Amino acid sequence: MKKVWLAGWMATIIAYIACILLMQHASFRLFSLQGEVMADQIAQIRSSQQIMETGRMLLLFLSLAGFVCCGMLSMKKRVWLLWGLATVFAQILFAVLYSKWMTGVYFAFAEAYQFQKWFWIILLIGVIGFYMVGRKTEEKMHV
Question: Is 85 exposed, middle or buried (0-12, 13-18, 19+ CB in 10 A)?
């Protein structure tokens, strides 16, 4: 079972990077349209905006999914809980720095982390829950 959770954790990291790259492509396509916008370009603008919005939400879910994979591993060994938190914060840092490097704006790809309070609430509940379950499992192993 450990290999499944490790594979899931790695898959979420790879999917996260792919999502950032797709958002970057949509962002470049969106900002490359200059001057007068033709009727056929309006569909491109809407498509790019939709990709950006969907990508921002997908980044949140991928971060939580990676954390849950590490949380499930933490039930046997609690150090995985720290790996899960480190992964979430590394993903946020990557999104912010990559956004600054590619667009010149810090939160072009990571603004959803700033405005979605439910993400932080779920993350906090997950940390507390996985910590408590891991502690109980550890106590059972020592008895």
Answer: middle
Phi, psi of 106 (to 5 degrees): -65, -45
Distance (Å, whole) CA 111 – CA 29: 19
CA angle 35, 39, 44 (to 5 degrees): 80
* Region 13-30 average pLDDT: 89
Q: Taking residues 35-48, what's their average pLDDT?
A: 78
| pTM of structure | 0.83
Nearest to 109 by CA among 25, 14, 23, 12: 23
CB-CB contact of 112 with 60 (8 Å)? yes
